[in-house]
Structure formats: structure tokens, C-alpha cells
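User: I'm putting together a small comparison set for a docking exercise, and I want a reference complex before I start. The sequence is below, and the ligand is aspartic acid. Could you produce the 3D structure with the ligand included, as C-alpha cells?
Assistant: Of course. I'll restate your input first, then give the C-alpha cells for the complex.
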Amino acid sequence: MAAGFAVRFSGLSETAVEGVVRWVKPAGDVFLRLLFMTVMPVLVSALSLGVAELGDIRRVGRVGLKTLGFTLFVSCAAVLTGILAVRVLNPSGGLPEADRLALLERFPVPASALAEETRGGGIVDALVKIVPKNPLEDMVRAFDPSYAGGGILAVIFFSFMLGIAMALAPPSKTAGLKACLEGLFESMMKLIDIGMRFAPFGVFALLFSLSATMGFSILAILSRYVAVVLAGLLFHLFITYSVLLSAFGRMRPGFFFRNTAELMLIAFSTSSSNATLPAALRTATDRLGLKQDVSRFVLTLGATANQNGTALYEGVTVLFLAGCFGVPLTLVQQATVILLCVLAGVGTAGVPGGSLPAVVMILAGIGVPAESMGIILGIDRLLDMSRTVVNVQGDLVAAAVVSRSS
Ligand code: ASP
């Protein structure tokens, strides 16, 4: 960012600055594309496998149902907290009109998304299109703004139904497909990992071009965005979790936070729920005194499925970017955002940057250019570390509540 400002205010002519940016920007685009190319495979494999495993949860019985119900309830609360924080603090509000236009020029938003009415006709039409006629077509054209089909929502629907079908079909017949999807999922996780290694260069290029062309106003709105995400996460961590612990877990919040301080540090520094899982298992039994069988089940499932911090962050990010571009969100689209954030919280892998493909998916789902996430990638690591703390603590809260009631 500093390098970008230096070029902008170095006295070079506008054309010369543009020339420099043209050379640097491709590195950022390559980084974004590395992430984008994982979106469809991650979505189909993670969601169908996740739903198929829920079929197994049914067999685990009451503990499974309680965990699932609690996860969905608290994820909804997290997304609503995020949305409320954006509404109250309005992080994109201070963006000068000239900069908004500069952004629109850089990341063209389809005209239909900027219009007030729901895209592609009424609500009924939008709902009908969620059921795909040809899921492959929706996968291929999911990022195409001129496509009038269901797009990403249709792919989600298809993956969901595929998962249900896999859970119901005879296991001996579906084992091969499951193994194949698992292989695809694991490979995509590795690919995200490789992509993240390129992040320092990609992020440099993205932020450099942004600050060289837009100047200080981008810094101001980014700081407000970070403040809103952190405020939402802190609220969820200390207020929502404390209420849940006292009301349903019969555990004093002071006791809980004292005994999980070290765990929060591990989550913060690794930025990965999965990497924190072994330490979380130990903390649950040794320090919080939870039942071992219940906490093992809830925490293992929760490391991937219960990601409140991620759901909250996604809600804020999507509304923030929509606000930056002046894309008005209809009631249907706002409900879509909530649904997608909850689903994405369930489907996101507990690895660093695991939720980035989900953000792309949600942006595409509501007509905001997915490339615009380049604006926030530069500061994502800090937010990733912070949301992971909330994710891991959420798993422990779930374990405490389910353990007490079982
Ligand atoms: N890093 C997060 C986790 O492991 C996932 C994400 O939001 O990117 O919990």
C-alpha cells in the first residue's frame, strides 16, 4: 500500500502511473484466479460430502441432532450480528462518489445488479431457477453476469441433493463416488494452500494497484471495514457466547475464558480450526471437565461445520463490498446472503483462508463482481486469525452446551 501511495504522489503523470499499475496488477489477478479455480470443485465436494455425512449423524442420534440444531442457530445469530454491525456502522458509507465510480470502472458491475428490481424477474421465478435444468451449465456460467439461470444457487441446490442421494443410496454402490469427492476436496485444500503461498506477491500487487489508483480514501474505508468485522467478532465471542454458556451450558463465562485463553492464542496464531483441534480436545476434557465422548464428537464435527466467526465475517464482507459498489440488496437477496453465509460457515474447511472460495461464491450469488474481493485480501490474514478464535471457541461452547444437556 505504501509503495502504491509513493507512486501515486511521486509526481508521475496519470498515464505513467497507469503504466506501472498495468505491469504490477497481473500478479494480483493470477493470485485471485488461483483461488477462483477452486470454488466450483470445493463447493460441490464439500457440500455433498457434508450433507451425506449428516446422514451418518442421524445414526449418532440425539447428540448429533442437538449439535446440528445448535450450530445452525448460533451461525444465524452470528450472521445477523454481522449484518447489524454493517447497518449501524456503515463501513462503506464514507466512500467519495468519485472513488465509487473508479471502483465501478475497475470491477464492472452488471447493470441488472445495480437496478432496484430482483434480477431475472420476480421472486417465484428466482426460486424456480434454483432447481437447475442442467447443473453443468450452471457451473460453467456461474460467474457470468449475463446468465439468467440459477447460477451458483442452482449448483448449491444440486450439491445438496447429491449429498442426500448419497446418504440414501446403498453405501456399497456410492463408496467410489464418495472416495472420489473426498479426493477432490483434499486436493482442492492443498491447492488453496499452494495458492496462499503466493499470497505475499498477489496481495502486494492487488494493494499496490488499488492505492496507486485510488489514494488514501481506500485506506480509510478499509480501516472501517476491519473495525466493523472485529467489533462483530468481539461481540459474538464475549457477549453471545457468555449468554449461551450461562443459559444452556451452566458454566460461568469467567471460568470458560480463563481456561481457554491458551487455546485462543493457538487458534489466533495458526489461523486454522483443524490445526487447533488436538489442543481443543485436551482443553475440553482436562480444563473444562466436559464429557470426553460428547466433546470429541462435537469438536471434531465443529472444526469444519461450526464456524460462527467465519459466517459473521462473510456477512460483513459481502454487505461491505455490495455497499462499496452501490449494489442495492433486495429483501430476497438479503435473505440469500444470510442463507449462504450459514451454509458457507458449515461448508468451510478449517484451514487458513478456507472461507475465501465461499466469499467468491456469495458475491457471485448476489451480483457483486467476485474480483472485488481483491480489495479486502490484503488485510485478510489478520481477520482470518481473529475469526478462527471465534470459530474454535464456538466449538467449545457447543461442546459445553451439548455435554451438559446429554
Ligand atoms: N481459518 C478459518 C478456520 O480455520 C476458516 C476461514 O474462515 O477461513 O477456522
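The chain has one domain: 2-405. The pocket of aspartic acid is lined by residues 271-273, 307, 310, 348, 350-355, 384, 387-388, 391 (CB under 6 Å).
User: Thanks, that's exactly what I needed.
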